[in-house]
Write a structure and sequence with these properties.
Helix content is 19%, strand content 29%. The protein has 15 helices and 50 strands. The strands form ten sheets. Strands 18, 24, 25, 29, 30, 31, 32, 33, 34, 35 and 36 form an eleven-stranded mixed beta sheet that branches. α6 runs antiparallel to α7. The longest helix is centred in the middle third of the chain and has 21 residues. 53% of the residues are buried.
Amino acid sequence: MFSALQLSSKGKVAVQVQLQNLRTEMLRNPEGIDAVHPRLSWEILGNQRGTMQTHYHVLVASTPQKLAADEGDLWNSGKVQSNQATYVTYAGAPLKSRREAYWKVKTWTNHGGESAWSEPNYWSMGLLSYGDWEGRWIGMDKASPWDEEDRFARLSARYYRKEFEAPKQIKKAKVYIIGLGLYELFINGQRIGDQVLAPAPTDYTANVKYNTYDVTKQLKSGKNAIGTVLGNGRFYTMRQYKPYKNKTFGYPKMLLNLVIEYTDGTSEKIRTEESWKMTADGPIRTNNEYDGEEYDARKEMPGWNAVGFDDSKWRQAEYVQEPDGEIEAQMNEPMKVMETLKPVSVKLLKPGTYILDMGQNMVGWLKMKVQGKQGDQVTLKFAEVLNEKGELALENIRDAKVTDVYTLKGGGEEVWEPSFVFHGFRYVEVTGYPGKPIVNNFEGRVVYDAMKTVGSFKTSNPIINQVHENSYWSIRGNYKGMPLDCPQRNERQPWLGDRPVQAYGESFVFDNEKLYAKWLDDIQNAQKADGSIPDVAPAFWRYYSDNMTWAGTYLMIADMLHQQYGNVRVIEKHYPFMRKWLQYMESQYMTDGYIMAKDSYGDWCAPPATIEEGRGMNANVKHPSYLISTAYHYHYLQMMQRFARLTGNEGDIKGYQALAEKVRKGFNHEFFIAKDASYGENKLTDNLLALYFRLVPKEQEAALFKTIANIIEVRNKGHLSTGVVGTQWIMRSLTEFGRPDLAYKLATNTTYPSWGYMVENGATTIWELWNGNTAAPTMNSYNHVMMLGDLVSWYYEDLAGIKSDRGQTGFKQIEMKPLMVNGLDFVDASYHSVHGLIKSNWKKEKKRFSWKITVPGNTKAVVYIPARSQNDITESGKAVSSASGVRFLKMEGGRAVFEIGSGDYAFVVK
């Protein structure tokens, strides 16, 4: 999501500036944003070491011509003394609806001189107020005669069209569209944009998202046609028969404005109103996220979205009630087809039935080529695994039908892919295919939010590498405009409990800031007036269990966005609502002894003691724990102190501190077992929380950690025994308290329970359950992220040594202290932070340690090099004491500690 801009230099050094998107608020070259104070970011590039920005100068202009003439008529910041290059807040003229803004920046550095102006970047404003929208919502508030509104909600897609005249020469044209639940947009027969499954899902009673498209090139003077298709998405929900559980919002509907500007200075707006025509009798006969899409090519309407189509048999569009939610621009990335896979095989299972294997558990759909006679019907059914007979194993899908059906029109080769569904699958059962299907007849379309991959990670250990690869596939597969728990069964919900720490690890792999900023808004919008937060947000399921560990994800995601991206605004925005939730929980459930007497799930999905013990066991069992809820209460009180400082709410801090001390004393009084140096029932998770959250008295810390290590090494025979809660803290606890070797053993185990056990048993994604291959199928997804815990962040921060300093967040200062554990010979990793690319490539040899490091411009790093003395170290072939940009700080724990500035470094220890 970066626009690379090469700059020449003025003065002493060659400096380059690379403009970033306007982070959080905007997409690349974004159309239709609604942030009236957007924040601008850029990167400082260059080969000279220790480069720090000293000043910047931003120009924002209303036209490219004015910007080219260095006229910042919207904002001219002047030369500002600052090293800030991220989240620089626009402080110019008020940004009105539909205004366009073109911007560039130049910088000065500590090496002297200034850069040239960057190449320009661009954004446009959306419709900032309700009154800017014209026209009416249109739709059809009933099903068609061929639809079935039963348990499986079979509702066909709705097609809309409008022809209009553009009588003058067109200067510019933009479409602003809210198509609920999902839409596809066409101008003069051409599909607009490469997004899919748009817009992003929300609780439509709270907010609805609109998208903006520049369609200047698609329009022409004279007659034009605009067409849309509306699918169901989460609006007309997948299950209509449980209104007490599933939130549904009505039938699909749309509001659209097409604004045309002519070269003579006049403008015109085409809007949705009753002159539009519509039909539901098109080729998409049903579309349901759980159950699949059925497409009858015989019902196609050639030219329906172009000028001249005979729509006399179509009906007039109806005015319908608008949704309750506030209209907002979509700021998170749209979903797109991000990769295409070829199947590895198509094998005959029985006459007429084939099993297609993608070779990878993926999320998206199949694109198919087929040739046959009219009326031939191809059925595609999706699953993650096969049973012992080689058939689809569908028990874990529950009542989802996960079936696409394509009916041929005949007459030549036909190519089809669905529009309004996605599947989680590795295997596809193909029936009804005319002739013998082969691999080249199919493509797997990998779909997720179009965010940049920012991390790479490789080590000398193949198990770690494969687990990282599996994590990559699970993480991106479950990004669907919100973070899902799973992509395959009749659930696919944004459970808060799956992501509190996991999102932190995800951020090293994907630039997920905009997605999680949007999710914080979803959580806030789901908050009840009394402060209660649900387990699922958006609250498509009406689950308000007042669970500390799930709802507290609200705080932890905000903290992640601050730590990884330096984003303070999300904490400022959500602080009052986080405080409201914590006060609610305290008023409802805190005892006189300061125990938080409310928990819903306990350490969810902790592994059975043995793989055989868990055979056939249903994992959907709750074990509420007041120890867990009280420990988390203390942890959140510590976080809220930090948030109060960041947001100028210092007056709240003493209250948090006083209550935290009472909670700590109450926790130890209730749960600490002094004779065993343990907590609660001496479970691994219970002890980990007391240790990592610093609840244990300082004098008992070493004894408690010894208890933890003993549980892993002796009781568990070198394995973990944590569920979704404990796994979030285990790798960092072991590392920080002196047993990185034990953390490494957990990371590389291939016996049950472990991440490596999943790999050894054929996993290409992360399982929901440690015993996913033997557990009862009722709750057994093969594509989840919740059991990743803190593993991925441990990979990058502790194995690679790429970690943002807690005091200077967003990688303004980097801490590089990779673990040296026996059995790991090299790590080669990179992470593209908000300031630029960070690389860490270290290698251990018999009598040599080498470490190549890249530090981005405008940042510093503190590096910890394993050595007996700084005199044993060279950098780029020179004694480190004479190396440019390297400053020795101290010796600490068998490491020489240096501060280095930006640049590329090659350290060698002999």
